[in-house]
Write a structure and sequence with these properties.
Length: 333
């Protein structure tokens, strides 16, 4: 068994007994390791900044971490999250699904304690510290239908909002793909479609959620616009977040597939919009150039586009997410 698999086995056990500790002597048999290997595992986990702490001869977690058994415990889906994959470190969960698209089933979910090459929309970097974020990617292989799959970003955002509400956390959506709490970004969505010629082979939904990050874990250049659930509401269990998200997503997704009605999840996006009714700068990205105009945000239409009225011409326009960013007077929002 390689070291990463042993690390995950150790973390699964420590997560199961959290907040209690276990002796090093007992962990030797639990992880099927000798003392030298176990001490190496612990040393590497601590050096990777996983929330593992050693006090004399006992080991425990500072807060819960991702664990497949714990996720499965709260899972109530018929297809999503089957199978589940959890990696200690991976370049990108989205890229893992892309590279294994032909062999993985629809509903496959890939998670990682840490991503080394995480990215967001428009290729922006996404911070993914070890053990203190949820980094996951969901694979969908929908049957041939006339549905507008660009709406999956909004459906995902709605499912995240509903998931956070279960934890008494009121979240807002900054169109098209950012989730905010106390007006700061707490989660992001990256939707990617994979085609073979004109045939849709799969849709990959990449989701990052800042769970148990401390404020000083957030890159200094974005601390004014990003936060974590721990900073807002205290330590959270990432496993219940993952299972609840899959449960909520499947309900919304299945209803959409059956009825072709996007109103239920778009209404969630409208009702929890961080933008509607406000005035913001609209930045249109044109390669190396961009334009910037002030507009009032009117609504989100039935195809997921943002409806705005430009203040310089009073022209009403609908914006698609690909080429636009929304900014406040002093930056992010």
């Amino acid at each position: 068994m390689d070291l990463d698999k042993r690390k995950i086995m150790l973390l699964d056990y420590l997560n199961n007994i959290y907040p209690h500790s276990e002796t090093i002597q007992n962990l030797i048999s639990i992880t099927s390791s000798d003392l030298e290997t176990l001490l190496l595992l612990i040393k590497e986990l601590i050096s990777e900044k996983m929330p593992v702490i050693q006090i004399r001869q006992e080991i425990r977690l500072l807060y819960p971490v991702l664990s497949i058994p714990a996720i499965k415990y709260g899972l109530n889906t018929h297809s999503l999250g089957d199978p589940l994959f959890l990696f200690q470190t991976i370049p990108s969960t989205n890229n893992y699904l892309k590279h294994n698209l032909n062999t993985l089933e629809s509903g496959s979910l890939v998670l990682a304690h840490k991503q080394s090459q995480a990215k967001g929309r428009l290729g922006r970097a996404w911070s993914s510290p070890a053990g203190s974020t949820i980094s996951m990617s969901l694979l969908l292989k929908p049957e041939k239908t006339k549905l507008n799959y660009a709406l999956l970003t909004q459906l995902t955002a709605a499912a995240i909002v509903k998931t956070l509400a279960l934890q008494n956390t009121n979240a807002e959506i900054k169109w098209p793909n950012d989730i905010l709490v106390v007006r700061k970004k707490i989660a992001g969505i990256l939707t990617e479609t994979e085609y073979s010629g004109d045939t849709l082979e799969g849709i990959i939904l990449g989701i990052g959620i800042n769970t148990n990050m401390d404020d000083n874990d957030i890159p200094i250049d974005i601390r004014n616009k990003a936060t974590s659930l721990k900073s807002v509401a205290g330590i959270v269990d990432p496993n219940s977040l993952v299972s609840n998200f899959l449960n909520e997503f499947e309900r919304l997704y299945d209803n959409w597939i059956i009825t072709h009605d996007s109103k239920p999840f778009l209404d969630i996006c409208r009702n929890h919009s961080a933008l509607i009714g406000g005035e913001y700068w609209i930045e249109e990205n044109k390669g190396l150039e961009s334009t910037r105009r002030k507009a009032k945000i009117e609504t989100i239409d039935d195809v997921g586009a943002l409806v705005v009225t430009y203040l310089d011409t009073f022209e009403t326009s609908t914006l698609l997410s690909t080429n636009y960013s929304i900014r406040g007077n002093h930056g992010y929002i």
